[in-house]
Amino acid sequence: MPDSAPSTERTVVHLVRHGEVDNPTKVLYGRLADFHLSELGHRMAELAAEHLADRDVTHLVSSPLERAQETMQPLADAVGLPVTLDERVIEAGNDFEGRTVGADPKQLLHPRFWVKLRNPLRPSWGEPYAHIAARMSAAIDDARDAARGHEAVIVSHQLPVWTTRRHYEGKRLWHDPRKRECALASVTSLTFVGDDVVSLSYAEPAASLLPQASKVAGA
């Protein structure tokens, strides 16, 4: 008869935010193509790789966007593993993509934008938080299963990582963006026993470089 006892295997899934992007015009680049890491961003990626390279990593996943793949590359080189691209860990959809609202928030005062701002709890300007949490959780479950008893790394983006963290912490998903704890090249680690999250931790391997980063670093 099969053993029906719950699994006690310990698995860790690390969620890494990409490094700084070369974005001199301060565009909200969202899912737009051809936005790459800056020189500083590449250094951040190397520090994130150093932080994770000695761990028991057996599975790598990246958002398909260039900045995420470039952040993953130093770690992939260090551990000698292939990288799976997963659309489920891509940046959140945003109707302001391609605009410079981060550098010039006063643009949002124009009446044509008001309909997009009617419900910040959803949010009305882009992909619902609940949808972000659902797709990220599904990708995390698959990464956990692929790395059972070991560790997996997923490189994603600030809002998906932060929304996922709040989901696992049992907190409301809507939040003040200024209070996110998800710095460039940071690592949010979920520890599972079996299929259950038992702890969450956060690290900033590139903390020494953060003061040099752009004030409008995107996501």
TrEMBL record:
Q: What is an example of a Pfam family matching this protein?
A: His_Phos_1
Task: Please name the InterPro entries in this protein's record.
Answer: His_Pase_superF_clade-1, His_PPase_superfam, PGM_Phosphatase
Superkingdom is Bacteria
Protein name according to UniProt: Histidine phosphatase family protein
Q: Which organism is it from?
A: Luteipulveratus flavus
Task: Specify the taxonomic lineage.
Answer: Bacteria, Bacillati, Actinomycetota, Actinomycetes, Micrococcales
